[in-house]
Amino acid sequence: MDITLVCGRRPELLQQTLDSFGEKIIANFPSGAVYANIDPFCGTEADGDACEELIRSHFHDVEISRPSEASFGAAVKRLWRKPRSGYFLHMEDDWEALLPVFPVDIEGRLSGNVAQVQMSARNRPYLPHRYSYKTSWINVFGLKIGKRTHFDRPLFSTSPSFIGRDFARRCGEMMDPDKDPEKQLYTDGTELAEFTRGYRNHPLVGHGRRAVVRDLGRPWLAQRGVQKRIVEGTSVWERTVDCP
Q1: Cβ-Cβ contacts under 8 Å for 162 (sequence gap 6 or more)
Q2: 52 close to 112: Cβ distance less than 8 angstroms
Q3: Contact by Cβ (8 Å): 173, 196
Q4: What's the confidence (pLDDT) of residue 105?
Q5: pTM (predicted TM-score)
Q6: What is the pLDDT of residue 150?
Q7: Which long-range contacts (CB under 8 A, 24 or more apart) does 135-138 make?
Q8: CB atoms < 10 A from the CB of 11, how many?
Q9: Nearest-10 crossing angle of helices 45-58, 11-24
């Protein structure tokens, strides 16, 4: 199984990510190639070097891109066209794996028109649907009830997931490198969005509906006064203080 990895220059976060995913998930799958992109986002050139060293110390077959300008969209577009295995694990540098995942958990779900199995980042005692759709929520006698919207528009993600190679490659070919990659996957009106409409994302939750992964990046950014916004379809990180 190949792996794609989107990174900034944050070696302390990357260390946590690689350690937890390596122990709980990656070790359970046959090893393949690792394609990583280290953007000049936060940190220093030396921090970028440290990230590269971490990746190379964890994996044997590694290809690393280090562009001169940071672009989340360009990183995903580049990486999703790389894998050769039938499906691959897509990762970012700021997540923690909480529960083990095995091939049997993925291969039964990643079939037919299911092109993505996304690891849930929150406990989900109630799942309104088998797949991820744009959903509105209403309260009925204290219970949250989900209702599909936007004509059953399926949702896709760039958070930790297992993704079918052919689906990802086609998405990468159509993806605009200057736009937020996740929003492009399900925002109507583009060739890419029409393509993804025919596929599904199957959430993976743990026993007892527990979260499988935990987001480390949002609290890390919040502690440093950094906020992400989407401006005209492009990811913009605004800093109220300098990002170390």
Answers
A1: 87, 88, 89, 90, 106, 110, 116, 117
A2: no
A3: no
A4: 95
A5: 0.85
A6: 47
A7: none
A8: 21
A9: 10
